[in-house]
Design a protein that fits this description.
There is one protein chain. Helices cover 5% and strands 39% of the residues. It has 338 residues and is mainly beta. The strands form two sheets. Strands 1, 2, 3, 4, 5, 6, 7, 8, 9, 10, 11 and 12 form a twelve-stranded antiparallel beta sheet that branches. A hairpin with a 2-residue loop joins strand 8 and strand 9. It is globular, with a radius of gyration of 20 Å.
């Protein structure tokens, strides 16, 4: 079965497009990517990484199912995971897009020493309206990849485990409900890394295992006084932010707010007016209230757009008041956007 999209409800937020043989006719495996020389023939993991580096060097050539609905922004991210229980890492390639981003999967064949694209895509992202969300999670045990779907107005999410069978992404378990705030034991949060930063090829994001090899390109560490955010600018109502609960100050449930929904949760240390700086894991950043009659929030021009924002430590903070969005990191200004 092939994941190609999402619907408007949390109960079924992926769309499966399949022929009678349960494979998509809209996409075929990419011709194996070959390198001229394996770096370390005795180490399958190192050989796989060499192959994956070639994919990251030219990510746009790999096809996405025509059934996937997405608007690419021209950038790509990746993560290295264990999804086939063979101790050789697998590559996830995210086609960064407005709202929902397709994610391609590549595996490494030790017999042919080549990397091959699996049929189908996962979906990762958020709807600009309505509150629907889709994320993929790696497996701590390395048994597959999870597609997680939920709605921001509900606390219950659905997790579906997929594996790779016959070079096709295939559902191997029925959807399982869980409280989204409480991660499932086998779920592993994925940190997406720009394809311009090859340092991510040295770590498999399931259990933190490291691959001992030279990183192809050194990466400069970011400045300690800067924060980096990557995600989609969305519009949410006060009712959506409160998940149906009463607003703290009697605000109408229809009041509108602009929120950056991050590609994946990040840990951040920011100032707090009442206490010393706090460290929290966040998945959203407040961009302020939007009043249509005034049109005074510049972020409205980026609605439904995937953005990369750099801000200084003085430009973000955790609120101590009861204003909406409650407790969400505030972004007052920025150093750069793209």
């Amino acid at each position: 079965m092939v994941l190609v999209g999402c619907s408007s409800t949390v109960e079924s937020t992926t769309t499966e497009v399949a022929s009678s043989t349960e494979t998509s006719s809209q996409i075929s495996p990419t011709t194996p990517v070959r390198t001229t020389e394996a770096a370390l023939p005795e180490d399958p993991s190192a050989n796989a990484v060499e192959e994956y580096a070639q994919i990251l060097a030219n990510p746009s050539i790999y096809p996405v199912s025509e059934a996937a609905q997405y608007v690419p922004n021209g950038t790509y991210s990746y993560a290295l995971v264990e999804a086939t229980s063979d101790s050789t890492p697998d590559l996830l390639l995210r086609v960064n897009s407005a709202e929902y981003s397709p994610v391609l999967v590549f595996t490494f064949d030790e017999n042919t020493q080549t990397a091959t694209q699996a049929e189908g895509v996962f979906i990762d992202g958020a709807s600009g309206v309505g509150g629907d969300r889709s994320r993929i999670r790696a497996s701590n045990s390395g048994i597959g990849i999870y597609q997680v779907d939920w709605n921001s107005l509900r606390e219950i999410a659905q997790s579906t485990l997929y594996g790779i069978q016959g070079n096709t992404l295939t559902k191997i378990s029925a959807p399982e409900e869980f409280i989204f705030a409480n991660s499932m034991p086998d779920h592993h949060e994925i940190s997406w890394i720009s394809v311009n930063d090859l340092s991510g090829l040295s770590t498999v994001q399931t259990g933190g295992a490291s691959i001992q090899q030279a990183v192809p390109t050194p990466v400069q560490q970011p400045a300690s006084n800067l924060h980096y955010f990557s995600g989609v600018v969305t519009m949410q109502t006060a009712g959506e932010l409160m998940r149906g609960e009463r607003t703290p100050n009697g605000e109408p449930a229809t009041d509108l707010y602009l929120v950056l929904v991050l590609d994946s949760p990040i840990e951040i240390t920011a100032r707090n007016a009442a206490t010393d700086p706090q460290t929290r894991t966040i998945s959203e950043v407040s961009l302020g209230r939007y009043i249509p009659a005034d049109g005074d929030n510049d972020w409205i021009g980026y609605l439904d757009t995937h953005m990369e924002i750099t801000a200084t430590t003085d430009q973000v903070w955790f609120p101590t008041d009861t204003g909406l969005p409650l407790g969400m990191l505030r972004l007052a200004d920025y150093k750069s956007i793209s």
